[in-house]
Amino acid sequence: MNLSVGMRAAVVSVAIFVAFMLAWHVATQGSGPVAQMDPEYAKLLGLTATQGKSAMPGPLDVGMKLWEHLQQPFYDKGPNDKGVGIQLAYSIARVGLGYLLAVAFAIPIGFLIGMSPLMSRALDPFIQVLKPISPLAWMPLALYTIKDSHLSSIFVIFICSVWPMMINTAFGVAAVRKEWLNVARTLEVGPLRRAFTIILPAAAPTILTGMRISIGIAWLVIVAAEMLVGGTGIGYFVWNEWNNLSITNVITAILLIGLVGMLLDQVLARLTRLVTFPE
Q1: Residues 218/94, Cβ–Cβ less than 8 Å
Q2: Domain ranges of the chain
Q3: Strand partners, 76
Q4: Phi–psi pair at 82, nearest 5 degrees
Q5: 170-185, pLDDT tens digit by residue?
Q6: Which of 28-32, 78-82, 100-104 has the highest mean pLDDT?
Q7: Can you spell out the DSSP letters for 204-260?
Q8: In this structure, which CATH number among 1.10.287.1080, 3.40.50.2300, 1.10.3720.10, 2.40.480.10 belongs to the domain 57-276?
Q9: Taking the model in full, what pTM does it have?
Q10: What whole-number distance in Å separates Cα of residue 32 and Cα of residue 252?
């Protein structure tokens, strides 16, 4: 029986996952002399089994902790004790606001750059200077001027999301076939109508690719930003659990960050496929 590529890929993925889990489990069991010692003999010597085991939690520990968090994701017992559902909601809300602001700013500017060689040359030096700056480098300035950690985090998300969208939009607009634009001019189609009826559909896949890159960067940056400003968010949760020396909670949060990032990426990937290959 011939399996499809998708089925074979799924089988390989499961095999890799199982192998990783087994390796993780074995690595965290410990192999020191205390771990291999008879429990009763170790007890007579005043030693415990845990002294021979790794301090890193195993997959079963992380799985049980994850299940515990998922049972009560939205509990609120004070500023430093909130469920992961609440923390993720704060992070997603910040990313959503900053990202939407970036969309509203970057795509029109990208259209302007792509449609006008003059504006492309005029704005290029500013883009080349601002683009390489780490988003977190803006955080002190944002905190000083805005004086609000929540809004400062949104501003940082805005900054890191702008450049991939703007550059991809400009590239997609500039790459639209000249024949289509010449026909539109011959038919005396106005610039605004030409932008929406010809350029936007042709450049949409490239624009959405830039949006997909931006959402991934935004989700990366929000975790680091929340570690810096504290208060709420999944990044603050990771830092707070590290301060509490709860490595199991740290690994659980890392897993949730990865899953949410994958979901955000897949939403944009699905939109890109719909635009590129409409059903």
Answers
A1: no
A2: 1-56, 57-276
A3: 82
A4: -125, 150
A5: 999 888 877 766 776 7
A6: 100-104
A7: HHHHHHHHHHHHHHHHHHHHHHHHHH-SSSHHHHHHHHHHTT-HHHHHHHHHHHHHH
A8: 1.10.3720.10
A9: 0.83
A10: 26
